[in-house]
Specification:
Shape: globular
Distance between the termini: 12 Å
CATH topology of the largest domain: Ribosomal Protein S5, domain 2
Low-confidence stretches: none
Strand content: 25-35%
Largest sheet: 8 strands, mixed
Oligomer: single chain
Structural class: alpha+beta
Number of strands: 12
């Protein structure tokens, strides 16, 4: 029988993002974040086939070189850590989460590959071990292993469950543009960085001060409405947060009319990765 493991990998929304300071020694910002996983998923399929020891990774859309390299790196890290020898290991990544959108598509996929391999090979690695391995590739991967609503501090090293998220659903507005992340980071570095308390509605993002004009137009449009809205992470996606599951379709219609080139996603809070194992008859 041929074993196949499928993993649904959830996106996330950054409800709160405050940049405290920049560390020259760590070469990164100290960001305080509150992230929430949502029911927008990439899908990963893992299976092993007869043949020489080899790793094959296919993606449903072209990705930048660094993303693909990170997928290979996490597989190799897992195999080295568990001392597993494989045949031809085939991993298929079906992309639904928009890239470079602040929704964590690459990081959730890396977490999904780890979780899927742990299930496929029945290695029973602990959550702590998976978080450690994932953080060797990207600190944000550890959050996706934990998943849910979390407060993240100490340069991504401290992850705690956050129980005070008042929101249940969101409308994501993705302008489908490429954001110059390095430029946004440099611009933010020239501004005065202040430590902020988490507001009652928790929606805040320091990067709103340096967003490009296409996203600024969405923000300005939404100021006409009494809604909680913000940028997600350091990406291109903007979102509106709702305290009830009933979506405001009127505002979505208005946004689609005003911004016809944007993509829209109605999503809700979701737990972490979902794993499905199935067995198929092997045919030569």
């Amino acid at each position: 029988m041929l074993k196949v493991v499928e993993v649904a990998c959830p996106a996330k929304i950054s409800l709160f993002l405050n940049v405290n300071d920049y560390s020259d020694t760590k070469n990164q910002y100290d960001m305080r974040m509150i992230n929430q996983t949502i029911n927008l998923y990439d899908n990963i399929i893992i299976q092993e086939k007869r043949g020489p020891e080899n790793i094959l990774i296919n993606t449903s859309i072209p990705l930048v070189k660094e993303e693909i390299e990170n997928y290979y790196k996490i597989v190799k890290l897992f195999l080295e850590y568990t001392n597993i020898k494989t045949g031809t290991l085939k991993i298929t990544v079906n992309k639904n989460i928009p890239s470079l959108s602040g929704l964590g598509d690459t990081e959730t996929d890396i977490a999904g590959i780890l979780i899927g391999l742990n299930k496929y090979y029945c290695t029973d690695l602990t959550t702590r071990e998976l978080m450690f391995l994932g953080s060797l590739i990207n600190k944000n991967v550890a959050y996706f292993i934990h998943a849910g609503c979390c407060k993240i501090t100490n340069f991504g090293d401290k992850i705690e469950t956050y129980k005070n998220n008042p929101y249940t659903s969101y409308l994501i507005i993705n302008p489908n543009i490429n954001i110059d992340l390095e430029n946004m980071l440099l611009e933010l570095r020239t501004t005065k960085l202040l430590s902020k308390n988490i507001p009652n509605n928790i929606v805040h993002n320091d990067f709103l001060s340096v967003i490009p004009s296409d996203i600024k137009k969405i923000r300005e449009f939404l100021t006409n409405y009494k809604l909680d809205h913000s940028l997600s992470g350091i990406g291109s996606s903007y979102f509106i947060a709702f305290r009830e599951k009933a979506f405001n379709f009127k505002i979505r219609t208005s946004l689609k009319t005003e911004f016809p080139n944007c993509k829209f996603y109605n999503v809700e809070n979701a737990p972490g990765h979902r794993v499905l194992t199935k067995y198929l008859n092997y045919k030569k």
